[in-house]
Each structure stands twice: as structure tokens, then as C-alpha cells.
Amino acid sequence: MPADRGQAAGQPTISEVAAEAGVGRATAARTLGGYGYVSPELRERVLAAAEKLGYRANALARSMSTGVSHTLGVIVADIGNPFFAGVVRGICDTSRARGFDTIVLSTYENLDEEVAATNVLIDKRVDGVIIASAAVGRREVAHIRAAMDRIPVVLVDRAVASLDLDTVVIDNRDAAREAVETLIAAGHRRIGFVWGPPAAQQPVTRRGLLAEASRNLWTDGERLRGYLDALDDARIPFDPELVMVGRKTEERVTEEVARMLSLPDRITAIFCTETDGVTGALRALRTAGLSCPRDVALIGFDDSAWAAVMEPPLTMIEQPVHRLGAKAAEVLLDAIAGGEPARETHTLRSRLIARSSVAPPPGPHH
Ligand code: RIB
């Protein structure tokens, strides 16, 4: 007999237990699902048949009857990215310690994928969802609002201005400002920004960049604002030629950094807002026969083990990735346990790890 939907292949089904017990399927379902009324005599027969056949309750079916699955859903941009892998580790360690399983889905910053992932998790009857969302504008959050109507939702890594939700992020704008201030303190004024909003129109203007940033990933916009804060504080004029815009790929970073290096008044430092930006920039330096930090200084976001063993060891911004995930899970589990969602933003501190990729700009001959 075909397995009931959702029953593992080879496992006895509710229908088979019902036949063995000599009761209707609905009676067996109520008994095994723990809901509705069943007479003691029939309950006894069903449980005996289930034990005889080795029936294992389908967790999804049980959650449908009890309304609780003891499972969290997590939606991130890319589980292969060390940043998100660290965040998910923090979520899983915390949820497991409180008796919850975790289902993780990747969306690759694609909003359609995020909508589909949200629906999958609701169908799986997770008890709550943590989302690092690619959504930004008011119109893009219908899927999150639909989820909020049914289960607790917590945002991690990215805030979404139009949603009044518990959110766990880091101090992106301050971290970016501190990094660029470090480059300015070393004597740099021509500092490339990698990478800016993906769709900023040409010619690039400060206003256009900020407008575009508000329509794209929250973290990118906050880091752009930190870069501009540091330039403004040092009275360094903003030069749109020093900002990479457009499609965000490592290859394009290499192209854009090569362009900035070929300017008559070339860049002498680079601030990268993501790991892919760091590798793309270093590739451009090598192609141009330039070295870091002798010819070009560099600071990037998202410290990692490889950044510390590079030559030179890179000065990077370290995000408390495990703590980000653990905090998001704690906030969500408290909401699931019945706590009224506080709907507040928790901002964790990042750390600038000073290593050896920052030095003063080369002499006037550069
Ligand atoms: O791709 C990972 C990066 O984007 C991290 O800096 C994280 O903050 C995310 O927003």
C-alpha cells in the first residue's frame, strides 16, 4: 500500500495501522496524531496495532494536529558564504540547546527564491522563522508580512525599514566609518569603495548612490554611509569615480579596481564591503603589478582565517557571526515560548582586526 503523504518509504502508514486495528483511518489518525476524541477501547487497539507494525509518527502530521513542530526555519542568502555559515551555526547551537531542530534554505539574494522559501517553511509548519532578507522596499515584503501573521519572525544581518520586527544586526555604518578613518589616518585620500549599489545610474552622484542604496541590501547602504561619513569628517571631497557600482561580481570588482588604478590620480587605498570585493581587488593589484600595502592599502569586511594568513595578513572587520545567529535564535525562541515580540533592533559590535594591509601612501612619484 502506498505510504501516506509524508511517511518515510517502508514505514507503515496510518491506513495500515487502521486496517490492523480494525478501525477507520480517521480513528487511527486521531489516536496517532494526539487530537480529537477516541474511545479508550479503540485507542488501545490502534496503539497495539501501531506498536506491532512499528509505526513512527510523521513529525509533520503531528505538528499539524498539535500546532507545534519544535522546528525553526532559517532563510539566508548563501549557506556557502562563510558569513552565513557562521550565523547558521550560532542559530543551530542555540536552537538545539532548547530542543528545537532547524531547517535552513538559501536564496542567493533572489527575492523570488526568498518568497518561495518562506512558503516552504510555513508549509513545513516551523514554529518561527529567522530571515537575512534581500527585501528592501515596502512592496517587497508581502511574504514576510504573511509569515508574521502566522508565526514569529526575526530579521538577522539586514534590517527592513518597512517592517516592525525584532532585528539582530551589527554596527555596519560605524564599522565602515572606522575602517575608512583608519585609511585616512594612514595618509590616504584617494580611497576606492568596493562595492556600491548594483544599479546606480551613470553618471554616479552622491545623491544617486544613496537613493540606490536605500533600494538595495541594507548592509551595503549602511557601509556606503559609513564611507561617506569618514570622508566628510576629514573634509575629503567625494569622487564618484572611486565607487564601484553595477553588477556585483568578483570579476567586475577586478575590472573596476583596475579602472581606479589607471586614473591619473589613482587610488592608494581600497575599502571592500564584502569578501568577494577583497579577492577581486587583490587580483586587480596583482595584474597591475602593484603590491599591498606598499602601493595600495586595503581593509575589508568579514574577517576569516584566510585573511590572517594572506601575504600581507589583511586588516579586516570581524563580524560576531556566531553571536548574531545565537541572539536571533534566542529572540525567536522567546517569542515562540509566548513572550510578546519586543520588535526592537539589537545591534552587536563588530571589531576592526588591525594586521598588515594598511601603510601610508607611496611617495609623490606613485
Ligand atoms: O555576503 C555576506 C555579507 O553580506 C556580509 O557582510 C553580511 O553582512 C551580508 O549582509
UniProtKB/TrEMBL annotation:
Q: Where is the HTH lacI-type domain?
A: 12-66
- Please indicate which superkingdom the organism of origin belongs to: Bacteria
- SUPFAM superfamilies from the entry? lambda repressor-like DNA-binding domains (SSF47413), Periplasmic binding protein-like I (SSF53822)
Q: Does the keyword Transcription apply?
A: yes
List the molecular function annotations (GO) for this entry. DNA-binding transcription factor activity; transcription cis-regulatory region binding
Q: Does the keyword DNA-binding apply?
A: yes
Arranged from A to Z, the UniProt key words for this protein are: DNA-binding, Repressor, Transcription, Transcription regulation
What is the protein name for this chain? LacI family transcriptional regulator
